[in-house]
Structure formats: C-alpha cells, structure tokens
Amino acid sequence: MYQVLRELRKKKKMTTQDMANKLGISKPFYSQIENQNRKLSYDMAVQIAQIFHKKPDQIFLEDYKNSIK
C-alpha cells in the first residue's frame, strides 16, 4: 500500500472517488493503484503528485524502498 499517498488523501479529506475524478480514471483503478495492485506509471505518479503539490519521490519513494528490502 502507498501509505504516504493514502495519508495525504485523507488529510485533504478526499475520497478515492475524488482522486479518480481528478485523474480521469475509475474509482476501482485508483484504488488498485493506492493498494499497489496495479503498476503505477511515471506519468500517473506525476499527476498524483501535482494534486498534492509535491514531487513524486515525496509520495512514493519510501514505499518503493520498503518494497525491495
């Protein structure tokens, strides 16, 4: 699971549907990304980061590092 992503989304009081709408994808597709059941493309990572005014590394890097240990 992308823990930082989920925390940011909840902190902004956004639902998975809100995120899906902003990204132009379905709610199930977004949920699969957040739960790491679907591969995250670089372009999608950039789009998500822009929503939170962050860089992709600030959201995804730590979870990525933990997944390869």
In brief, what are we looking at here?
The protein has one domain (3-67): 434 Repressor (Amino-terminal Domain), CATH 1.10.260. The chain contains five helices and no strands. It has helices at residues 3-11, 16-23, 27-34, 42-51, 56-67.
What do you see in this structure?
- With 69 residues, this protein is mostly helical.
- The chain has a single domain (3-67), classed as Orthogonal Bundle (434 Repressor (Amino-terminal Domain)), CATH 1.10.260.
- 68% of the residues lie in helices and 0% in strands.
- It contains 5 helices and no strands.
- The chain has helices at 3-11, 16-23, 27-34, 42-51, 56-67.
- Helix 2 crosses helix 3 (27-34) and helix 4 (42-51) packs across helix 5.
- The longest helix is centred in the C-terminal third of the chain and has 12 residues, at 56-67.
Number of helix segments? 5
Q: How many distinct domains?
A: 1
Helix content: 55-70%
Instruction: Specify the structural class.
Output: mainly alpha
Instruction: Note the beta-strand portion.
Output: under 5%
CATH class, named Mainly Alpha
CATH topology: 434 Repressor (Amino-terminal Domain)
Which whole number gives the mean pLDDT?
93
SSE ordering: HHHHH
Name of the CATH homologous superfamily? lambda repressor-like DNA-binding domains
Number of strands: 0
Can you name the CATH architecture? Orthogonal Bundle
Low-confidence stretches: none
Anisotropy-based shape = globular
Report the sheet with the most strands, covering strand number, pairing sense and barrel closure: none
Head-to-tail CA distance between termini: 15 Å
- From the alpha carbons, calculate the radius of gyration and give it in angstroms: 11 Å
